[in-house]
Amino acid sequence: MKKIETIEEMQKIALDILVFIDQFCREHGLKYFMVDGTLLGAVRHHGFIPWDDDIDIWMPREDYDKITELLGPDSGSRYQMINIRTADWYRYAFGKIMDTKTRLVEDLGYSGEMGVYVDVFPYDGLPGEKEEDYAPLVKQCIQMEAHRGFSCRTYREYLEYGNCKSNPFKFAKWLARKLYGSRRILKKQDELARSYPVKGAKMVGCICDGYRLGDMMPASVVEKTTELEFEGHRFQAPAGYEYYLKKLYGDYMKLPPEEERVTHHHYQAWWKET
Predict the structure, then answer these.
(1) DSSP per-residue letters across 212-255
(2) What is the CATH number of the domain that holds 237?
(3) CA-CA distance, 185 to 148, in Å (whole number)?
(4) In the chain, N or C terminus with fewer CB closer than 10 Å?
(5) What pLDDT, on the 0 to 100 scale, is given for residue 62?
(6) Could you tell me if residue 130 is inside a domain?
(7) 3-state DSSP call for residue 156?
(8) Using CA atoms, how far apart are residues 119 and 135, in angstroms rounded to an integer?
(9) Three-state DSSP class for 28?
(10) Nearest CA to 227 among 217, 216, 241, 243?
(11) Is residue 82 part of a domain?
């Protein structure tokens, strides 16, 4: 296998996956749009943030489930969806559409066959219209995500991650999570996230990953999409992308300090065939 050495090569593979996703979604009437650093890159750089190599998209839960069925492991497609419904070993609450001609190994050491991927986050409806209405649900998901993350780590990794010293209480807490199992936690997360449908909801958000309250927003922000340029292509973005980016990043057109312009991903990747 030939190792994928440069950030530019990783970006090119991820971009090819996004080109496929865009065409596939158009052909099957599915909705997606760029989010997070991908959307920021489209607006500020008209492409990748120079020091970033990943791509993130959101899909409404219903369309996320459809694309899971259409691009499963038996689809025969070069680009396939992997999530908790397609792989028993998978340990994330969101999905990834991966290039099966590549192989990727994450430093976290999750077992299973993965390739270079685009992260696909399903978004769901939220109760009510104010933060106090949906905050308890989101915080519950955040807590469950913390439990899931720790359940995947060794005791030493757990202590290092929390920057804490070992004691009987810490060990018992880690062991309880480990015995309960990340798979069971993931299923609970998934069930909880599906509590409220997107249709008819005033607020929506990606709560399956238990990430942050900042990802929750009025449904009107993402109800319609528009096209933005990204690396010479035009991809879908939420029509309210300015609201989204300001909520997430504040002054999003301002570049971060140079010392913060680093890649945060920890993995190695190869082409399966040279």
Answers:
(1) -GGG-EEHHHHHSEEEEEETTEEEEEETTHHHHHHHHHSSTTSP
(2) 3.30.460
(3) 6
(4) C
(5) 98
(6) no
(7) helix
(8) 24
(9) helix
(10) 241
(11) yes
Q: What is the DSSP letter of 32?
A: -
Q: Rounded to 5 degrees, what angle do the CA atoms 207, 208, 212 make? A: 40
Phi (first) and psi of residue 34, to 5 degrees: -70, 145
3-state DSSP of 115-147: CCEEEEEEEEEECCCCHHHHHHHHHHHHHHHHH
Question: What distance in Å separates the CA atoms of residue 125 and residue 123, rounded to the nearest whole number?
Answer: 7
Q: What are the tokens at 148?
A: 């899931």
Give the structural domain span for 24: 2-124+220-271
Which of these, 34, 70, 80, 68, lies nearest to 230 by C-alpha position?
34
CA 83 to chain centre: 11
- Give backbone dihedrals phi and psi of 218, rounded to 5 degrees, phi first: -60, 140
Q: Which residue reads 């496929």 in tokens? A: 20
Residue 147 domain flag: no
- The CB density around residue 142, as the number of other CB atoms within 10 Å, is 15
Asked if 221 and 136 touch (Cβ cutoff 8 Å), the reply is: no
Give the H or E element holding residue 43. helix 36-44
As averages over each run of 10 residues, the pLDDT of the chain (274 residues) reads 93 98 99 97 97 95 98 96 92 93 80 89 94 84 67 62 67 63 79 92 85 81 98 98 94 88 82 83
Q: Is residue 151 part of a domain?
A: no
Rounded Cα distance between 93 and 148, Å, is: 9
User: Alpha carbon of 88 to those of 7, 85, 111, 112, 169: distances in Å?
Assistant: 30, 7, 10, 9, 31
